[in-house]
Automatic annotation (TrEMBL):
InterPro entries: PorZ_N (IPR048954), Quinoprotein_ADH-like_sf (IPR011047), Secre_tail (IPR026444), WD40/YVTN_repeat-like_dom_sf (IPR015943). This is ABC transporter substrate-binding protein. Keywords: Signal. It comes from the Bacteria. Residues 44-204 form the PorZ N-terminal beta-propeller domain. The keyword RNA-binding does not apply. It comes from Flavobacterium sediminis. Residues 1-19 form the signal peptide.
Length: 761
């Protein structure tokens, strides 16, 4: 038997205040994969697993709720809006509750996670029901109760016939009794005002059937049965009111309408239980429904992949898509910034390079002017599991995208080509051979990299000739690695880099790092035994501005201090980075699983760590400049799949498994002169949160900032094209309102410029 009562919520909740004026972070979330919808007075709310939005039906504006606002879910399963308390509540699969107050503050409640004494896998929140100032939370273990006025948890009910856990799908109150539709024990009920309602013995079985939804509608009980029918209770028995022929997903009541949703149907019934709407499709879309409700005589329908739609109940032939503009989905695997677009793909593979289940999401591109555009799956020749992107350095409009199943895509405007084993000749792309099925086609391309001569190199997994090149002239060539790599038959490869000597540095899953130069016809393999690598699973390599090779592996980081040593030596040794923390010396990223690394305009390194967020380290790795994770930043997840840097604006994009955000830092490339130096924001207003940036600088430029009387308040030397100032006098105190002079000079003093910035406190 389990009985639990608790009133300790203030100790285990966190309130996050956020500022709309924080201009350092931006969100690029998808609002297509709708999990649930919730009604409010003149508003509709909708949510994906990681983000939410609402539309004011009177003002027609759409507002987004995401991690940039401090809203950081785990995996949203259901939502609710309380008109009485002006609070938006989201429940998660792990029991986490997020409450967004009317002023925009976000309260994170971990009471269910930390205090309910059940296994973690049965803490899923299934639905909410508000009654008399309390929120009844249906979970996989029973019911928990939240005081909406104080945000405090007050009780938990285990309502199995012997006090055991049972999944509760939905609750409602009817005639002063709380009804619960459960998985194992039918419909259970208890007097809602009973002071001992937390005691399972106060509950009784109302019906022993199999129900997965219950609500109060038109002063009657309505329940959704697992037999794909919905019933009303007439006082003595349940009477069928709707046969929906599919399992019911949601049962919602609002404004005199009852809405039942299945995967392929949305039914709306009036208070006489007459069907006033039956939606089976959305014109021009192939949709799967997830949830629906009615507000202001309009039906609002959430779909699994296409967003939120609305239509008037009087005109179900005209639907409007209400989802904010965004990428196709929140799980973005790879990014690439071009001068005119940010490209994104969604196909992924596991650590062992397994692409299954295969993805069919197409290609997205984003521009600030046009928003997000999609090249659909059918338009890219149904290429699956798109997992790498590169731009032609001689033509930024020409984009190549690797498919880890279908080959290589070339996109140039409206012209799209798919290269595979059928059109690249005997020296081109190859399919892996599946035993017993010679007709099987599976072409796993990855590791795209251009050399300085315009040749596009790539890896081809599970074949002997695992290194391929598409020459600038259009010819294909293959290189046999069977005599070089021990595990060539199952060879899989990470992100390659090519140095100015035309040496290819190719990471492998099991054989370490392969270095190859076709001009010299020379191979060197760097592994744990010969080159001091921490692991033979090398994930990615980059060459920084000092010609150093940075190598990230499944268990740590190494550096080859000069890639040109490949030309003179037959064996190469890498080095770790030892940092000093207090009295202790330790290896940077010791034994940590690293995912991605990028070099910014100041030669600093952005490194993502599996389940550890993102680090920015100095050019030599000795200093940690930033450490961003889900707890201290708008990162929606600590798993960052890809980092991409806009070298012109300094915007750093972080593609995670739960959405994409960006950070506006100082990662711009240095300019050749000081002609285009600018300051932003300018003026700096009282509500601004963040640093002041001076951009368009040359490398190692001297920057001095003085007040209008000439008193020096800040001085620094640029590393890259941008510096930032925190608005203080040498870090001691905030400077007063006024105009401040910015004097900039190149390293040799031959070029100077003067700018001004106004600060308003």
């Amino acid at each position: 038997m389990k009985n639990i009562f608790f009133a300790f919520a203030l100790l285990i909740s966190v309130t996050v205040s956020f500022s709309q004026n924080n201009q350092l972070w931006k969100g690029y979330f998808s609002y297509n994969e709708i999990v649930d919808v919730a009604s409010a007075t003149n508003k509709i709310y909708a949510t994906t697993e990681v983000s939410a939005f609402y539309k004011d039906l009177l003002l027609s504006n759409v507002e987004q709720i995401n991690s940039v606002n401090g809203f950081k879910p785990e995996d949203i399963t259901t939502i609710y809006y309380s008109d009485s308390f002006k609070k938006f509540i989201a429940g998660n699969s792990n029991g986490l509750l997020l409450i967004v107050n009317n002023d925009g503050t976000v309260v994170t409640k971990v009471d269910i996670i930390e205090e309910v004494p059940v296994a973690p896998n049965v803490k899923r929140v299934n639905s909410f029901y508000e009654y008399d100032g309390k929120l009844y939370i249906s979970c996989d273990y029973g019911i928990s109760v939240l005081n909406l006025a104080t945000n405090e948890f007050v009780s938990t009910y285990f309502i199995g016939t012997s006090g055991e856990e049972t999944k509760v799908y939905q609750t409602t109150v009817y005639n002063n009794e709380l009804y619960a539709a459960t998985q194992e024990f039918g419909i259970r009920k208890a007097t809602v005002t009973n002071p001992f309602i937390y005691d399972f013995s106060q509950w009784q079985t109302f019906d022993t059937g199999y129900w997965n939804g219950i609500a109060t509608f038109n002063n009657q009980l309505v329940a959704m049965n697992t037999n794909s029918k919905t019933y009303r209770y007439n006082g003595s028995s349940f009477v069928e009111i709707l046969n929906h022929n599919q399992a019911g997903l949601t049962l919602k009541v609002n404004e005199g309408y009852l809405t039942v949703t299945t995967q392929n149907n949305v039914y709306v019934l009036d208070d006489s239980f007459l069907q006033v709407a039956h939606v089976t499709n959305i014109p021009d879309y192939s949709v799967i429904f997830t949830a629906a409700t009615v507000v202001n005589d309009h039906v609002f329908i959430g779909t699994a992949t296409n967003g939120l739609f609305s239509a008037s109940l009087s005109n179900l032939f005209s639907f409007e898509n209400l989802s904010p503009d965004g990428p196709v989905r929140n799980y973005i695997f790879r990014l690439k910034k071009a001068p005119n677009y940010l490209w994104a793909v969604y196909g992924d593979y596991t650590r062992l390079y397994n692409p299954y289940p295969l993805d069919e999401f197409g290609v997205s591109k984003y521009s600030g002017e046009d928003g997000w555009e999609l090249l659909p799956y059918d338009d890219v020749y149904q290429a699956k599991s798109l997992s790498d992107i590169i731009l032609n350095p001689n033509n930024a409009n020409e984009v190549y995208i690797a498919s880890y199943f279908s080959g290589l895509l070339k996109i140039n405007g409206d012209n799209i080509t798919l290269y595979n084993d059928q059109n690249t000749g005997s020296n081109g792309l190859e399919s892996l051979v599946l035993s017993g099925n010679p007709n099987y086609v599976d072409i796993r391309i990855n590791s795209l990299a251009f050399d300085r001569e315009g040749n596009l190199w790539m890896s081809n997994a599970f074949v002997d000739r695992g290194l391929k090149v598409l020459r600038a002239g259009g010819q294909w060539q293959s290189y046999n690695l069977s005599n070089v790599l021990t595990n060539i038959a199952t060879g899989r490869y990470g992100s390659m880099a090519i140095d100015n000597n035309l040496t290819k540095w190719l990471p492998t899953l099991n054989d370490g790092l392969l270095a190859y130069n076709e001009t010299l016809n020379k191979y060197i393999v760097l592994d744990t035994e010969t080159a001091n690598l921490p692991d033979n699973d090398v994930r990615k390599v980059v060459i920084d501005n000092n010609n150093q090779l940075w190598i990230i592996t499944y268990r740590g980081l190494r550096i080859l201090y000069n890639v040109s040593t490949f030309l003179q030596q037959e064996e190469l040794t890498t080095n770790n980075i030892v940092i000093q923390e207090g009295d202790l010396a330790q290896e940077l990223f010791y034994q940590q699983s690293l995912i991605d690394i990028e070099v910014d305009g100041a030669n600093r390194k952005w490194i993502s760590v599996a389940d550890g967020g993102v680090f920015l380290v100095s050019s030599n790795g000795q200093q940690t400049i930033y450490q961003f994770n889900k707890n201290n930043s708008p990162l929606p997840s600590n798993n960052v799949n890809d980092i991409e840097i806009d070298g012109v604006t300094g915007e750093i994009f972080f593609a995670t498994d739960k959405g994409m955000v960006s950070f506006l830092g100082t990662s711009t490339k240095p300019s050749d002169d000081l002609e285009n130096v600018y300051v932003y924001p300018n003026p700096v207003r009282p509500n601004y949160v963040g640093t002041i940036k001076i951009a368009g600088l040359t490398d190692k430029a001297n920057v001095k900032i003085t007040d209008i009387e000439g008193n020096l308040v800040f001085e620094t030397t640029s590393a890259g094209g941008t510096i930032e100032w925190d608005g203080t006098a040498f870090g001691k105190h905030r400077v007063a309102s006024g105009v401040y002079m910015i004097f900039v000079a190149t390293e040799d003093g031959m070029d100077t410029t003067v700018k001004k910035v106004m600060i308003i406190r």
